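Milestone M4 deliverable, item 7.
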Amino acid sequence: MEGRLIYSFPILRAIEEGYVKRLRAKMLRPSELRYVDRSAGEERVIGPEEVRKLGEENAEFRRGIVMSDHTLGSIVDQSIAELRRLRGETGEGKLKIIASALNQDHCIQITEAFRGRNLRAAYVHSREGTEANQRVFAQLERHDLDVIVQARMLTEGFDHKYLAVAMVGSIFANLGPFVQFVGRVMRAIKPSSPGHPLNQAVVVFHLGGNVAQRWNDFRKFSLADQDYFAQLLPEVEEIEFKGEVVEREPGGGGIDSVEVLEERGVRAADMEPIGDPQAAELLRQIAAMGVTPEQAAHEIQRIRMTRQDRRVARRAALNDREQNEAGGILRRLQINPGGRTLDPAHRKNNVAWTIAELHRRINEHVGGANADRQNFTLDQLDQAHNALPDIVHTLEEQLGHGV
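Output delivered:
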């Protein structure tokens, strides 16, 4: 349709008036990254410029960046550091992280990563159903969550003003979806108060995710008053990351991605992972012993992320993956989830029976017939995660043949 532009109110003007938050962007930039180049069948070590180039040109590499242990862990840890910084500067404990994911299994992986770091995290996804998603939204509104993870769900129309950190864990090929996602952290907490400490938000992403281009596109979205524009939406800040990364096996979900083996010298900003008075006092005591604040913060973060935290998060992620895979089995075999054709006793519906059967087979594979998942060690949970794809494949084949 032809038309004539009558009026435009750019985002920059909204920031200037205090209607939405002022934004910053922080990009994690490794000095060296080691990964498996499947096209050449060999390991490669590359520097930041090639990381940037591959991120721009290679979709498989971009997926590997947001799914692999080391790189995803860096993005998660820096997002937590930004949340703690904002909470510490403002005194507002309701501030939260919103993270984007590729699909449901990636939602589970990212949720586990945050839970393993002792943050309250949950995810929403279209396949979870309205009731499950509404429970998560209710937790968010009650401020019972620190992090909400989603895959293309919380876009235009979703409103929770305490979202302050946007962690980019997915791929944005176009500007529109990126602006919609970033918009979730832009709602002002103190309306019409430009410059208020609570009216600031941060976008965190990795150099190899090709997000810098989307950010630059966003900055160019309006051409009005370039000097002031540069203040409101600054250039991407490359920072030095000193956080600890939890190692885990990435989940399934049918996404073929590169395997990142290691990244070194990741640049991130002054990391302030702890915001409470006790931690500050502990930092001062350690500094008095000749340890730098960066080293102290690193050690505190490492201690806080205990094996117990990781075990609880790993177990919850396993349960989530079982439910996800059960739905996938029934969908591929075109079996009605609400029917009762799979349970010989006809007590459980098909989805409940499939989840229970996966649960039973995984437990038996790891710990025998009488295995108790509540008491699984972290190593046993790792075994369970690794075994899940084969167990899913076997069960699906058996159901497909009517066994």
